[in-house]
Protein: Threonine--tRNA ligase
Organism: Butyrivibrio proteoclasticus
Amino acid sequence: MNKEEYLQVYRHSLAHILAKAVIELYGEEVQYAIGPQIEDGCYYDFVLPKAVTQDDFKTIEDKMREIIKRREDWTRKEVSKSEALEMFKNQKFKTELINDLPEDEVITVYYTGDDYVDLCRGPHVENSQELFNASYQIKSVSGAYWRGDEHRDQLSRIYLYAFPSKDELKQHIKMIQEAMERDHKKIGAALDLFMFDETAPGMPYWLPRGWKMYQALLKYSREVQERHGYTEIAAPLVNNKKLWLISGHWAHYVNNMFMVPGVSGWLKADAEIPGVLENINEPAEEPKNIKIQAGSVIYNREQDDTMAAKPMNCPNAMMTYKRTNHSYKELPIRYSEYDVLHRKEKSGQMNGLFRVQEFRQDDDHTFVMESQIKEEIADVISIADEIYKTFGVTYRAELSTRPEDFMGDIEVWNRAEAALKEILDEKYGEGGYEVNEGDGAFYGPKIDLQIKDALGREWQCGTVQLDFQLPHNFGLTYQAQDGTMQMPVVIHRAIYGSLERFIGIIIENFKGVFPFWLSPYQVGIVPIRVEHNEYAEKVEKALMAAGVRVEADYSDNNMKEKIKKFKNYKDPYILVIGDKEAAEGTVSINVRGSNKQVQNVPLETFVEMCKKLNTEHSLELIESL
């Protein structure tokens, strides 16, 4: 058994120990649902007679230790469906799971001792003594819906950290505490970068400081893409459903789109509509009568005039290409876009900037001949190398292949997957990347780029998707060298991915201490007294003329208060302007993260230093001149 298999077995076994402990503490009326192992431990879902609070954690942990010390045997048993239903007749969730199993399913249960049994495929430890050295700790208790459905029973989910040793558990908890300190929602609020409001759920408000950083990201992306021959376009944010029918998104994505349904007419009189369900998947729900007032508009998304906010840019890029005839001499044609996108998400799935309903991508759709695929994707990977290196993060590649709901000809898919595998083999070597079978987009296979942050966490950001389907749907062509009309291949590409999500990641990666080129404001200017404001304004104008983002405090507040304000915003450099600086045309620099002050620096020298940091996209500050 390798380490990963071992971790799964003992974490899953600890989930059973957790369930047994909770039942012994809270009584036989406890309803226990499911308890899988997860990346750093396990959890179990319950309906309990009373709420579990943090004060109860130690009691549950102690009961688990007591159960483990009993050295009970674990027994696997195969049972029939009827036997299983009888065994769990008082457990509603287990009964539902059993009823959902096929008639010929082999059903297994696991006994821990003689008094606890669970419906489970296993495997598990053979005796509880195998868990003696396991180190675990209750992480938290949260609410969860049965089978993830907000219209079903609400359960109490108890999370458990579980590791093979005390040192590993200690290190993990330390990492979790560090991650909490880096929480982008907390830092974003402290630095005045963004906010959310219930009137636009999952749609961030970018505040002045955050928007400056956002624009710096866009500027850098545009600079890189221009060097690689990309041209930028912009397209309508709301499109008629005809576009989504052609692209195939209507069939695959309609429930994730914000829609303006077409108008079928108006009600002449008040009307009641019977038999309305809030959730069509809940057969036990009582249907309702909905009253609609006279004069109301009757909307119907089946109408031809139905419009939808675009969830992706692809169809607009296809229409842009289609506007004119093309020759093989023009290819590749690279259309980059940063348009706003909207995707509907369940309220429980939204999480700060990591999962939003409104966002932008550093999107691109490149139209190529099949013979150009290899060279073009190699160039995309080189862009990823450059951009991720600029942020000081490493990455690895994953190949995702044909999903079950794929669109198009299977032979085309096979050709596309073979092309991507060849590219990855040459770049990373055979076995130097992961393959996710069946995880591709519905229109083509893809390469996902997983970046690793300062805490070692991985995030999926970049993606390169090969598409033989959308050009076919839109009837795209180019004139080949032999005069025949051929269909181009489309490469979908993003490096940041969602800018919102990428910003959340880099906030946590840098802990809000951004590189100079990315900082919302790069220099804070503090005149010691109001009589120094005139020279401070000269300094500000010189820096602004050089493209440096500057903020200055010309108030008569105490100098230390002004410095503290800019320090709290983590400005890289704070310039203190007094008599000496004004007389000599110099600046005194407080360097972020240290008590160091660099004095008597000519203004021109400091301006050139800032320009250098911006041009080179440096990760580190210059601390001496």
